[in-house]
């Protein structure tokens, strides 16, 4: 099993980024897939989950209305569109296999998102 994130970077407040997660070794549509993050000096924080057998999703209140999770079954990838970014969104973002409450069985190496002017 391997998860590889990409798409992070430096963006100004109010800007947008799109994170992608390429999965191998399993089928993403068969598992709940989550994005989690770890900000400076903080623990892991759940951000969003997309559920199998459909496109039902859930979001933490801090990102609801700004972030959108999606899945591409053809390419076996999961993405996170992040709009209206805030400085408090600065974190290392991980793609993980598992539901909102965890456990996150598998996790990628992370992609850094920095929101700063």
Short description:
0% of the residues lie in helices and 50% in strands. With 117 residues, the chain is an all-beta fold. The strands form two sheets. Strands 2, 4, 5, 6, 9, 10 and 11 form a seven-stranded mixed β-sheet that branches. A four-stranded antiparallel β-sheet has the order 1-3-8-7, with no helix packed on it.
What structural category characterises the helix and strand content? mainly beta
Radius of gyration: 13 Å
- The percentage helix is under 10%
- Summarize the biggest pleated sheet: 7 strands, mixed
| Number of beta-strand segments | 11
Q: Count of DSSP helices?
A: 0
Report the average pLDDT across residues: 96
- Ends: how far apart? 37 Å
**Uncertain runs with pLDDT below 50, 5 residues or more?**
none
Task: Encode the helix/strand succession as letters.
Answer: EEEEEEEEEEE
Portion of residues in beta strands equals: over 45%
Shape: globular
Give a verbal description of the structure:
It is a single chain. This protein is mostly beta strands and 117 residues long. Helix content is 0%, strand content 50%. It has no helices and eleven strands. The protein has strands at 2-6, 9-11, 17-24, 33-38, 44-50, 57-59, 67-72, 77-82, 91-97, 106-107, 111-115. The strands form two sheets. Strands 2, 4, 5, 6, 9, 10 and 11 form a seven-stranded mixed sheet that branches. It has a four-stranded antiparallel sheet with strand order 1-3-8-7, with no helix packed on it. It is globular. The protein starts with a strand and ends with a strand. The relative contact order is 0.32.
């Amino acid at each position: 099993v391997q998860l590889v994130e990409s798409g992070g970077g430096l963006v100004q407040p109010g800007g947008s980024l799109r994170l992608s997660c390429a999965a191998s070794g399993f089928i993403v549509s068969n598992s709940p897939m989550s994005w989690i993050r770890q900000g400076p000096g903080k623990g892991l924080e759940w951000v969003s989950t997309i559920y199998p057998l459909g496109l039902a999703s859930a979001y933490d209140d801090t990102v609801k209305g700004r972030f959108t999770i999606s899945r591409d079954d053809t390419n076996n990838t999961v993405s996170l569109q992040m709009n209206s970014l805030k400085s408090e969104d600065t974190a290392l973002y991980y793609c993980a296999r598992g539901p909102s409450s965890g456990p996150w069985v598998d996790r990628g190496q992370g992609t850094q998102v920095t929101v700063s002017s």
